[in-house]
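Bumping with the actual sequence this time:
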Amino acid sequence: MTESRRLWFRWILPSVAIAAFLFILNHTAVISGALAPPPGYVSQYVLRNTDMTVYLNSMQAGKHVWFPPNFSAPWLTPDELFTPILTLIGRLSNFMPWSVLIDYYVLHFLATVGATLLLIAALRYFVPAGRQRIAVIAVIFCSVPFLSIWYTIAKAIGASPGLSSLGLIEYTYTTADGLVRGGSSNSITLTFGTAVVLGAVLLLAKRIETGGTGWLWAVAALNFVSAFFHPFEFAVITGTGCLLFGLEGLRTRNWSRAIHHSLLLIAAGTLGLSPYLIQLARVGWLRDMSAADPGMVMNVASVLRMWGMPAFLTIYALLMRFRPRTPRDEVLAAWCLVAVLLLFAHPPSPFHLLDGFTYINAMLLVRIGASDPKARTLLERNRRPLLACCYVWILLCTGVQATTLIQLARDGRSADPDVLISSVAPESEQALRQWLQLHANSDDVVLAPGLMSAWLTTIPMHGFAAQDNFSISYGQQFKQSTSFYAGEWSPEHAKEFLHRYGIRWVVIPAKSGAKRYLEERAPAALFGDLALYRLPENHTLQYPGRAEVQVVALFPK
C-alpha cells in the first residue's frame, strides 16, 4: 500500500467517519427541531442558547468589520469586540454562495474532523496496545456525571428526577467539549479548544520524550494559536509545559535549559493573548464586562461530580502515590494535575481549562492500570468482581447515554423544554423579527421577555438582558426585566425605567402583567399573542460607565 493510500485509509477516512457520527450526535437537538417542530413553531437550525446569538451577530458583522459591535448590551459601545474565529467565518462567508450559518456548520464539521484526527493520534501514541485503546474508549464512554446516573434511574423507575436533572446539563452543556461531550453547547470554539489540547499534549510528550527543540517550537506555536483564537486553554498548556520542564531540569540539573524553554512557552502564550490585553486596557466597557462577570466556580469536587467515576479513580490512584513510569505517562499526569490546580485560581470560564480532560484522564487511568505494579496486582487478584463492577457501570452509562440523546431530541423540538435547550421558536417571534428587520434601526434597544430578547439582537439591534456575559450588567437587567413583565411596578416607575435605558421597542405578551404600563398607547404591530410598542421619545444612550450603570439599577424600585 502506498503512503498516500495508507494515510487515507488509516487516518483520513476513519477520522471523517467518526467525526460525522459525533457531529450528528452533538446536533441531535438541532436535527430534532428541524425535522419535527411543534405546531405554531419554526426551526431556528441552531440551539436557542444566548451564546449562539453572540456568534451570529459577530459572524454577520464580521463580513464588513474586524471588530464587531456588542448588540447584547442596551447601550451604544465602541465596536471593539475581538472574536477572531467568528470574524474570520464572517469574512469567509463573503466568498461563499450560502448563508453564514452554513459556513459556520461547514467549518465546525472540519474542526470536528481535526479534533477526531488528533484524538486518534493521541490514542495510538499514548496507548500502544489494542486492548488498552478499547479500555480507553470505554472509560471515555463512562465519564458521565454522577447526577446523570441518578437521573436515568429516576426516569426508569418513574420517580421525580429532582436536582439530578442537573447531571444532564453538566454533561451536555457545562462540560461540553465539542467532540464526544456535548449536545447543548455544540460550539466551534469548544471543538477548537479540544483540538488544541490534544495537539498540545502530543507535542509536549514528543518534546519530553525526545528532547528535540523542534517539538518545543511546535508547542510554542500552538500555544500562541490557542491564546490568540480562544484565550483559555493556553493557561493549561503553559502550566503543564513549565511543570514538565521543571521536572526535567530537576533530573538533569540543567536549570538554564528548563528556564529558557519555560520562558519561550510563556512568551508565546502572552503574545497570543496580547490583543485581548490591549483591548482591555483601551476599552472601558470591556473591563467593566470582565469585572461584572461572576463566572462559574469549579474545584476538585466539581471535577469528581461532572466527570464521574473515571475522575474519582484517577485522583484516588494519584493519592495512592502512583508514579508515572514513562515520559508519556508523566505528561498525561502533569496535564490533569495542572488543569485541576488552575481551578483554584478561580479563572473566568473555568470549564474551558478542562476541554479535552475526558480523553487525557481516560488515557492516564488506563496507563495506571497497565503499568503500575500495585494496580496490576489488584486487577489480577480481583479480576472477576472488578470485571462485574465494570460491566454494571458500563450498563448504567449506556442508560445515561440513551437517556441523554432521548432528552436532547425531545427538548430540541419542544416549545417548553423540560431540562435542556430547544431549537425552535414561535412563529409569532419569527414574524416579529422579520418586521423589525424592516422598521427598526440597528442602534435601537428592544425589551422582550426571556430568550426572545437575545434572539431579537440578531436583527441586529441592541437587547436588554440579552446575554449573561456581554450585557455588562446582566444580573441587574435580568431582575428588572423579570419584575417589569410580572407587572410589579407602577406605570410611573415603568416609564422611568424605559426612559433611563433608552428602550425604543417593547414586546409584551398578551398574558403579561406589563400590559397596563402601555395601555394608553396603540401597538405598532401585533404578532399572534405578542404586541410590539414603539417609544419614539426614547433614544439609545452611550454606555455611561460602571458607576452610572449601578445608579440606573436603583430605578425603579
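The C-alpha cells above came from a reply further down the thread. The chain is about 65% helix and 5% strand.
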